[in-house]
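Hey, quick one: can you model this chain's 3D structure?
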Amino acid sequence: MAETNLFSPIEYLKGVGPTRGEILKKELNIHTYSDLLHFFPFRYIDKTKIYTISEINADLPFIQLTGSVVSVELLGEKRATRLLANFSDGTGTIELVWFKGYHWMAQQLKMGVEYVVFGKPNYFNGKFSLPHPEMD
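Sure thing. Here's the predicted structure for all 136 residues.
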Protein backbone atom coordinates (compact mmCIF):
# COMPACT_ATOMS: atom_id res chain seq x y z
CA MET A 1 0.00 0.00 0.00
CA ALA A 2 2.71 2.51 0.96
CA GLU A 3 4.68 1.73 -2.19
CA THR A 4 1.76 2.68 -4.44
CA ASN A 5 1.41 6.06 -2.63
CA LEU A 6 4.97 6.95 -3.58
CA PHE A 7 3.97 6.98 -7.24
CA SER A 8 0.82 9.07 -6.75
CA PRO A 9 0.77 12.36 -8.66
CA ILE A 10 2.12 15.27 -6.63
CA GLU A 11 -1.06 17.35 -7.00
CA TYR A 12 -2.90 14.83 -4.76
CA LEU A 13 -0.62 15.62 -1.82
CA LYS A 14 -2.53 17.61 0.81
CA GLY A 15 -1.79 21.32 0.42
CA VAL A 16 -0.37 21.06 -3.11
CA GLY A 17 -3.33 20.95 -5.49
CA PRO A 18 -3.32 21.37 -9.27
CA THR A 19 -1.78 24.87 -9.44
CA ARG A 20 1.21 24.17 -7.19
CA GLY A 21 1.48 20.71 -8.74
CA GLU A 22 2.04 22.28 -12.16
CA ILE A 23 4.69 24.62 -10.75
CA LEU A 24 6.50 21.71 -9.07
CA LYS A 25 6.42 19.72 -12.30
CA LYS A 26 7.56 22.56 -14.51
CA GLU A 27 10.23 24.19 -12.32
CA LEU A 28 11.60 21.32 -10.21
CA ASN A 29 10.64 18.23 -12.23
CA ILE A 30 8.69 16.79 -9.25
CA HIS A 31 5.85 14.61 -10.58
CA THR A 32 5.26 12.08 -7.75
CA TYR A 33 5.56 11.78 -3.98
CA SER A 34 8.74 9.79 -4.57
CA ASP A 35 10.24 12.63 -6.64
CA LEU A 36 9.55 15.01 -3.75
CA LEU A 37 11.19 12.69 -1.20
CA HIS A 38 14.28 12.38 -3.38
CA PHE A 39 14.56 16.11 -4.14
CA PHE A 40 17.59 17.74 -2.53
CA PRO A 41 17.87 21.52 -2.82
CA PHE A 42 20.85 22.95 -4.67
CA ARG A 43 21.63 25.45 -1.93
CA TYR A 44 20.74 25.98 1.70
CA ILE A 45 20.67 29.48 3.12
CA ASP A 46 20.79 29.81 6.89
CA LYS A 47 18.70 32.77 8.03
CA THR A 48 19.01 32.02 11.75
CA LYS A 49 22.23 34.00 12.34
CA ILE A 50 22.04 37.77 12.62
CA TYR A 51 25.38 39.47 11.95
CA THR A 52 26.53 42.90 13.01
CA ILE A 53 27.86 45.31 10.41
CA SER A 54 31.29 45.15 12.04
CA GLU A 55 31.39 41.35 11.42
CA ILE A 56 30.90 41.60 7.64
CA ASN A 57 33.74 40.30 5.49
CA ALA A 58 34.15 39.35 1.83
CA ASP A 59 33.89 35.60 2.57
CA LEU A 60 30.25 35.71 3.71
CA PRO A 61 27.88 34.61 0.92
CA PHE A 62 24.71 36.01 2.55
CA ILE A 63 24.11 38.08 5.66
CA GLN A 64 21.18 39.09 7.81
CA LEU A 65 21.31 42.33 9.78
CA THR A 66 19.00 44.12 12.16
CA GLY A 67 19.00 47.89 12.53
CA SER A 68 17.43 51.04 11.17
CA VAL A 69 17.64 53.37 8.18
CA VAL A 70 19.40 56.63 9.09
CA SER A 71 19.29 58.38 5.69
CA VAL A 72 17.84 57.92 2.19
CA GLU A 73 19.21 59.50 -0.98
CA LEU A 74 18.32 59.31 -4.69
CA LEU A 75 21.46 59.56 -6.85
CA GLY A 76 22.19 59.70 -10.57
CA GLU A 77 20.12 60.61 -13.59
CA LYS A 78 17.90 58.74 -16.02
CA ARG A 79 19.09 55.13 -16.43
CA ALA A 80 21.86 55.51 -13.83
CA THR A 81 19.44 56.50 -11.04
CA ARG A 82 19.71 54.52 -7.83
CA LEU A 83 18.38 54.72 -4.29
CA LEU A 84 20.89 54.60 -1.42
CA ALA A 85 19.83 54.07 2.17
CA ASN A 86 22.38 54.17 4.97
CA PHE A 87 21.58 51.38 7.43
CA SER A 88 23.00 51.31 10.95
CA ASP A 89 23.00 48.71 13.71
CA GLY A 90 25.13 50.52 16.29
CA THR A 91 28.38 48.82 15.22
CA GLY A 92 28.64 50.59 11.87
CA THR A 93 26.75 51.57 8.73
CA ILE A 94 26.23 49.87 5.38
CA GLU A 95 24.61 51.13 2.18
CA LEU A 96 21.44 49.45 0.94
CA VAL A 97 21.19 50.01 -2.84
CA TRP A 98 18.28 49.69 -5.28
CA PHE A 99 18.70 50.12 -9.03
CA LYS A 100 15.15 49.07 -9.94
CA GLY A 101 11.90 49.85 -8.16
CA TYR A 102 13.56 52.67 -6.26
CA HIS A 103 10.52 55.01 -6.40
CA TRP A 104 8.34 52.46 -4.63
CA MET A 105 11.09 51.53 -2.18
CA ALA A 106 11.74 55.18 -1.29
CA GLN A 107 8.09 55.49 -0.22
CA GLN A 108 8.28 52.33 1.92
CA LEU A 109 11.44 53.17 3.89
CA LYS A 110 10.88 54.81 7.25
CA MET A 111 13.64 56.48 9.28
CA GLY A 112 14.28 55.05 12.73
CA VAL A 113 12.12 51.94 12.20
CA GLU A 114 13.76 48.62 13.09
CA TYR A 115 14.27 46.41 10.00
CA VAL A 116 15.76 43.00 9.36
CA VAL A 117 17.63 43.00 6.04
CA PHE A 118 18.99 40.00 4.17
CA GLY A 119 21.23 39.89 1.13
CA LYS A 120 24.57 39.24 -0.47
CA PRO A 121 27.20 41.77 0.59
CA ASN A 122 29.03 43.53 -2.22
CA TYR A 123 32.45 45.15 -1.70
CA PHE A 124 32.87 48.21 -3.95
CA ASN A 125 35.04 51.34 -3.62
CA GLY A 126 36.39 50.26 -0.25
CA LYS A 127 33.06 49.65 1.48
CA PHE A 128 30.31 47.07 1.72
CA SER A 129 26.79 47.46 0.36
CA LEU A 130 23.70 45.27 0.04
CA PRO A 131 22.12 45.55 -3.41
CA HIS A 132 18.35 44.90 -3.49
CA PRO A 133 18.11 43.40 0.03
CA GLU A 134 15.07 41.54 1.34
CA MET A 135 13.53 43.63 4.11
CA ASP A 136 11.14 42.78 6.94
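One thing worth noting: The two ends are 45 Å apart (CA to CA).
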